[in-house]
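Appendix B. One record, verbatim.
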Amino acid sequence: MEREIKISNDLNEISVLASFIEELGEELSLSFETTMNINLALEEAVANIIMYAYPTQEQHTILLRVTYSEKQLVFLLTDKGASFDPTQVDEVDVTLSLEERPIGGLGIFLIRSIMNETPSRLPQVERVKQSVKISGCPMPCFWEDDSFDFDKFYIGSDEKSRCKELFGRMPDMEVIDRENGFYECIPRGHSKATAVDLVLKHCGIRIEDAYVFGDSSNDLSMFRYAENCVVMGDHSPVLELYATFITKTVEDDGIAYAMKELGII
């Protein structure tokens, strides 16, 4: 079973989250105490995302996906806010008095006390890990295996990472800065632009009749190549220079909206 809810980064949305968790508890026949604890932990996590992950006055969407099986109940929060890794936060010493105890950390202590696993938020890495889990991976792959084929890979970094040194050892790879310490690595000479060019030539479509859609810095190559570039509502600012049309967000069916507005459909 899977359920999901989308809320905006507004503290007023906490009540919407609470109603969702309450309905979930009834559907799964969870005890009142379990439902209350789940709501308490998620409310703390979401409130921190809303208050600290985004610049003020910017509206964004936070997605909560719930996956239930006989053995576990998994809650996955997905957002595009500033990175934060709760696993690197020291445990709070709750034996200290209020006067002795440093400010902060109690929220994470609360979540750890309720949930049996607190995911990493090393920039974007947890999102990629969960995407693989959701989409399914037929078998594990290892770099040392000669039969391991790939078309790209990702690197998550923090302030301790020596990225420039690593990239200098990868002359055959092009590194795309996906922002917030997240890098996408692809074989040099291959990109979304070369893919678009190949498809257009194969199908006999003129470049002026083609439209590309994108939202991230890894779309920059095809935006530079194409003439009609549609950028999604929630996007990397590096694309704006090449955008010929800015549509709505993915959550608001931005592709369909743009295609109607541009007369494609």
